[in-house]
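Submission checklist for the structure archive. All mandatory fields must be present; incomplete records are returned to the submitter.

[x] Identifier: DsbA family protein
[x] Organism: Bradyrhizobium jicamae
[x] Residue count: 218
[x] Sequence attached
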Amino acid sequence: MPITRRVLAAALSLAGICGAFPLRLIGIATAAEAADASNDLSKPTSLPEMVLGASGAPVRIIEYAASTCPHCARFNRDVFPKLKSEFIDTGKVRYVFREFPLNIKDVACAMVARTIANNDSGKYFAVIDVMFRQQDDLVKKTTDTLKRIAHQAGLGDQAVEDCLRDQATLDKIQADQKFAIDTLKIEGTPTFFVNGTMIVGEIEFEELSKRINSLLKT
């Protein structure tokens, strides 16, 4: 059954609802799977892409992640700052972040992050970083934590409530997730595509750095 704004509001009002689906299969896709996925990665998504890095960067990394995923939070904390400093800010990597909600709370986080950012990628990545760092609070008290984060960005309670009632954005998030599942065969978070090659699960900076450098040499 599709998630509607009524279902979203009702779910968020229930204390302690988590409903995470930990489908995290660690590994790398086969060559055929990676080729198929690569052909579809550039297709337009329903929502504007949230991107950091030069448009002409030789390496393109796409991350599918969820705000309540602890593996994604660890990547954001331990790996992403080094990746940004050494490869994104230096024009070697273009980085794309796409939402892949694992539960109703991830949907709410994605909607609020999109509202705060208002299609500004810099703002979006800043908000996502805050959400990952406050993940425990988001899981325990989703609505209160989202409102607190929104207040810091200058949005009031009513703006958050209006955001969570935005059926159009909700439909787009669901459409993009359906595309990720049906076409790209994504099953969990985090999932990365490095120049089209799928990497499923957590990856350390050293391994990611090796992959990037090998592509920079070609």
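[x] Structure attached
Curator remark: The chain has one domain: 21-206. Confidence is low (pLDDT under 50) at residues 14-35.
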